[in-house]
Amino acid sequence: MNLYVLLKMVPDTVEELNVATDGKSLDSEFLRFKLDDPDEHALEQALLLKEKHGGKVTVVALDAPEVDEVLFTALAKGADRAVKILVNQSGLGTVAAARVLADYFASASDKITSDTLVLPGSQAIDDLEGELAPSLAAALNLPFVGVVSGVTLAKEQAVVTKEFAGGLRGEFEVALPAVLGIQSAEKPPRYVPVAKVRAVMKSAKIETVDHTPPDRLIRLELDRMYKPEAAGRAQMLEGAPEGIADKLVEVLANNSVI
Amino acid sequence: MIAPFEPAVVDKATTLETLLETPAGKRMMTCIQCGTCAGTCPYGEHMDFSPRLVINMLRGGFIDEVIKSDSLLRCVSCYACMAKCPRGIRLTDVLLPMVKEQVLVTQSAMPAEFQKSLENMHRYGNPMGESPRKRAAWTATAGTKIPLIAEVNREVDVLWFVDSYMSFYARGQDNGRATARLFNALGVDFAILGNEEKSAGECGQVTWESGLFESLAEYNVKLFNKYKFQRLVTGDAHAYNAFHFRYPMYGLTQPAEHTAQFFARHLDQLKPRLTRPLNLTVTYHDACCLGRAVGSYDEPRALLQAIPGVKLVEMVHNRVNSLCCGGGGGGMWLDTYYKQKGMERLSERRVKEAIATGADVLAVSCPYEISRFEDALKVIPHDKPIVVRDVAELLADSLAS
After folding, report:
1. Which of B101, B256, B305, B367 has CB 3.0 to 4.6 Å from B232, enough for a Cys bridge?
2. What is the largest CA-CA distance in chain B?
3. Which chain A residues contact residue B104 at CB under 8 A?
4. Which of B261, B335, B328, B355 lies closest to B301, judged by CA?
5. Angstrom distance (rounded) from CA B367 to CA B235
6. What are the chain A neighbours of B109 within 8 Å (beta carbons)?
7. A14: chain B residues, CB-CB within 8 Å
8. Residues B208, B248, B187, CA angle at the centre, nearest 5°?
């Protein structure tokens, strides 16, 4: 199997996010980046498939802050190659990123083969529509299934599980090669000891690929970015605990909650 | 008390393969297989490979079988086996962590809670996964000035290493506030690292993750070298353990003290300031990293007895026989796993002993114990109220306001 996992860095929401002075972007002063959660599952799914069927796992990422550590961590977990495309991910937009990745797969060294599976995460916190995977599949003219939560391989095809609302599950047969947007791997992403990552950092190399960024940005125009605004409908109850309890019961009764 | 960690005994490059050639390993060859370690281990009955068996498997060349098993997930690094070993074999701080490290490398799945905590410690420098930029936020509630070492711009006597539980955990912050008041009452020249500080990483080393420990230790030592201070003082018994035993291997040159040791050393100055009588019966729980690890049994007790109106009573297991709260060795993040395996929480076993003393207060000196014992008290029935307080909190309560 020729497994490609696409890794994307997203803002770490553990840090408090602030809107920059332009009112349209995140303040980058204290912004930190982490690997997108579904991408971490995509890597786990690829590693599970490699363990079962053999083959090679290549992780591919666009350039972004802290991406090197993420690529080394993927190598420490068992990926065979790590590739960094030297195009700044920031401000690129999902569709343009898909174009860059499609160009990458058109290159001689990483051509799509008959046993290729491309596994991006099915969405990211800054791509909730999950446009990356279908855009890439369209550009590569490959079949696509998104929100995948399980992959098994049979002759020249993959059988994928997809979750629907209401707890329903669907099974799809997809001809290879294909692009699968991974929502969750069959097992939680594995732990890799820090010692292993540090050893890999010393011994392994990240391959880099030069690429000219697209001259035209393809993305939605963002008018305004803002924090949720307080609606001001909260009602503070004051007084002794017994009095507050009585008032609370009254409020709940008046609003037909009880 | 356990013998100091001499660099000649084992160094940081020692692995399971080379262990038996080191002085510490040669001592393991003298094990008489008496089984005292297995008998004294609080979870010994739940282990496929007790400490005694681990030694024997290592000597026989079968250590791989131990590594394949999840037996050592049940080790809470409480130093009980090591403290009782008639041969002085370094189990808790040498053999068991080396085996655990290999368990972590070999097992593909770790209990989720535990994995998350290790990942958080690596990324954010604290096991809770809180923003490192909020690490010093608690100081705004201290009610007293807490200087940042980066701002004082000169040598200080005490660099106070606050660590994660006192920085981020609400009940841990009570200990931080109390310690700040005590430092100020004594006129101590101190400062903290603030947001720059990262977890000392004890639960890296005495646990599983040598790489995680090393990256945290290297980071913190580099930070220490940036500033000038006479001594390192911490209220976190696990951080103290790391500073005392391991950090010297990574370049820490200043002496490290636990706050209980520091305040006990200043008891003559502190005692006249302890004027508010508390009128409480108190029982003291020996933290593993302070008690068995370095033999500081008397300092916390001396502090408690210096408080007017405190009557000190002992639990059945005390001092070298103290029962671990179950939080060490990664146990802090393995409660769900232990529950799944049908194992009693050690903190519950311990609070039963505390309740039996009839004390009003269960006093502790390790920040893990606050949450562990308070949680245990929620499920263990008791008629007379009993609360958990750090020794520092009780001392601060007794200061004239």
Report:
1. B256
2. 63
3. 191, 193
4. B261
5. 8
6. 187-188, 190-191
7. 124, 129-131
8. 110
CB contact A191 to B (< 8 Å): yes
Per-residue pLDDT reduced to its tens digit, A98-135: 999 999 999 878 889 999 999 999 999 988 999 999 99
Taking CA–CA distances from A12, the nearest residue in chain B reads B131
Is B4 part of a structural domain of the chain? no
Q: Which of A34, A187, A197 sits opposite B211 (nearest CB)?
A: A197
Give the distance from residue A137's alpha carbon to the nearest chain B alpha carbon, in angstroms.
32
Tell me: do B46 and B96 sit in the same domain.
yes
Question: B100, exposed or middle or buried, with CB in 10 Å at 0-12, 13-18, 19+?
Answer: buried
The alpha-helical segments, DSSP class H, found in A192-240 are 194-203
**What ipTM is given for this predicted complex?**
0.86
CA dist B118 and B127 (Å) reads 6
Residue A143 Cα, gap to closest chain B Cα (Å): 32
* pLDDT at position A246 over 90: yes
Residue whose structure tokens are 């420990």: B213
Instruction: Report pLDDT for B9.
Output: 61
Amino acid identity of residue A87, one-letter, is: V
Which residue is closest to A77 within chain B, CA to CA? B108
CB contact under 8 A, B212 and A193: yes
pLDDT at A117: 96
| Interchain CB contact of A24 with B (< 8 Å) | no
- In which band, very low, low, confident or very high, does the pLDDT at B296 lie, cut at 50, 70 and 90? very high
- Name the amino acid, one letter, at B24: A
Same domain, B172 and B250: yes
pLDDT at B2: 57
Question: A30 CB near a chain B CB, below 8 Å?
Answer: yes
Helix or strand or coil: residue B289? coil
Q: Yes or no: say if B364 and B285 are a contact pair by the CB < 8 Å rule.
A: yes
Contact between B338 and B348 under an 8 Å Cβ cutoff? The reply is no
How far is Cα A225 from Cα A219, in angstroms, rounded to an integer?
A: 15
Domain spanning A2-209: CATH 3.40.50.620: yes
Among residues B106, B132, B152, which one ends one of the domains? B106
Residues B370 and B308 grouped into a single domain: yes
What tens digit of pLDDT does each residue of B55-68 get?
A: 999 999 999 999 99
